[in-house]
Amino acid sequence: MSKPKVLITRKWPASVETKLKQLYDVSLNEDDLPLTSEELKSALQNYDAVCPSVCDSLPAEVLNASNKRCKILGNFGVGYNHIDIAAAKENGLVVTNTPGVLTQSTADIAMTLLLMSARRGAEGDRLVRAGKWHGWCPTHMLSSDVTGATLGLIGFGRIAIATARKAHHGFGMKIVFFNPSAPDPSVIEELQATRCDSVEDVMRRADYISLHCPGGPDTRHLIDDKMIRLMKPNAHLINTARGDVVDSKALIDALRDKRIAGAGLDVYEGEPNIDPGFLTLENATLLPHLGSATLSTRNAMGEKVLANLAAFFEGREPEDRVA
Ligand code: 8YV
């Protein structure tokens, strides 16, 4: 029997690509250039499996391509808001993701941003490199404490809980959160966490707000001007979730007017074409979507995709099926 034809849309870690070559008739993306919509449509017509990433937009218009050969989208990543799930289902496509394996690395990046924003890390680094540091003085670059402050989480899934654990056990932070459904009571007890009734409540109470909800139409601009105006003047906003959860213009205005102390961002609306308004703000810490970017995590994400593809092609239910 011939091997299934598999397309990997971007360059993956070498060890995973080696396994893919052994198992499948695989097309890799050596140049690592993102595919166009036309190339994605043609991929759906010519491959049994397509394995996209966050940068591959798969709206209904692409998924409705005629004469499709593709039966499964093995997404390399936990978030799948770049895929129109309803259209995937209508087209009989199975969709899988990679939950669990990037929890700790993404929570680490949330804490990195929180600490950098709180302690003005990126600003200090820029100052030193620019030769503008003229020596220690008692009132230079004063910032905010992290230890003992209140961390507010919007969403309380795997990554939020991992972030809360690092913050609470490592930095003695108090935890408040909003989540539509009730989490495991043992987690609440472990973290002595307070469940708030609304996002607004978290925005008012927290010194650091970290976003952990999924992206997509339901959460688009959840954090808008009105929400940002509820934040304390010394508060910081951290986003490792999805860029479009935050109204960039409203956040830029708040940072420029110093209505909040800072923001730490790993994801952006329309990334990588980020709003240039962010670039001149000293109180914005900007990372290039590094949440899951450790070698071991990216290997583990690839292994998850491999396991999901193997299950599918062997006629079993893939463990991480989302459609
Ligand atoms: C991934 C992420 O690197 O998994 C996710 O949802 O946001 C990232 O950390 C990216 O999605 C890869 O597709």
TrEMBL record:
<feature type="domain" description="D-isomer specific 2-hydroxyacid dehydrogenase catalytic">
    <location>
        <begin position="7"/>
        <end position="322"/>
    </location>
</feature>
<dbReference type="Pfam" id="PF00389">
    <property type="entry name" value="2-Hacid_dh"/>
</dbReference>
<dbReference type="Pfam" id="PF02826">
    <property type="entry name" value="2-Hacid_dh_C"/>
</dbReference>
<comment type="similarity">
    <text>Belongs to the D-isomer specific 2-hydroxyacid dehydrogenase family.</text>
</comment>
<keyword id="KW-0520">NAD</keyword>
<dbReference type="GO" id="GO:0016618">
    <property type="term" value="F:hydroxypyruvate reductase [NAD(P)H] activity"/>
</dbReference>
<dbReference type="GO" id="GO:0005829">
    <property type="term" value="C:cytosol"/>
</dbReference>
<dbReference type="GO" id="GO:0051287">
    <property type="term" value="F:NAD binding"/>
</dbReference>
<dbReference type="InterPro" id="IPR006140">
    <property type="entry name" value="D-isomer_DH_NAD-bd"/>
</dbReference>
<dbReference type="GO" id="GO:0047964">
    <property type="term" value="F:glyoxylate reductase (NADH) activity"/>
</dbReference>
<dbReference type="InterPro" id="IPR006139">
    <property type="entry name" value="D-isomer_2_OHA_DH_cat_dom"/>
</dbReference>
<dbReference type="InterPro" id="IPR036291">
    <property type="entry name" value="NAD(P)-bd_dom_sf"/>
</dbReference>
<feature type="domain" description="D-isomer specific 2-hydroxyacid dehydrogenase NAD-binding">
    <location>
        <begin position="111"/>
        <end position="291"/>
    </location>
</feature>
<dbReference type="GO" id="GO:0030267">
    <property type="term" value="F:glyoxylate reductase (NADPH) activity"/>
</dbReference>
<protein>
    <submittedName>
        <fullName>2-hydroxyacid dehydrogenase NAD-binding</fullName>
        <ecNumber>1.1.1.26</ecNumber>
    </submittedName>
</protein>
<keyword id="KW-0560">Oxidoreductase</keyword>
<dbReference type="InterPro" id="IPR050223">
    <property type="entry name" value="D-isomer_2-hydroxyacid_DH"/>
</dbReference>
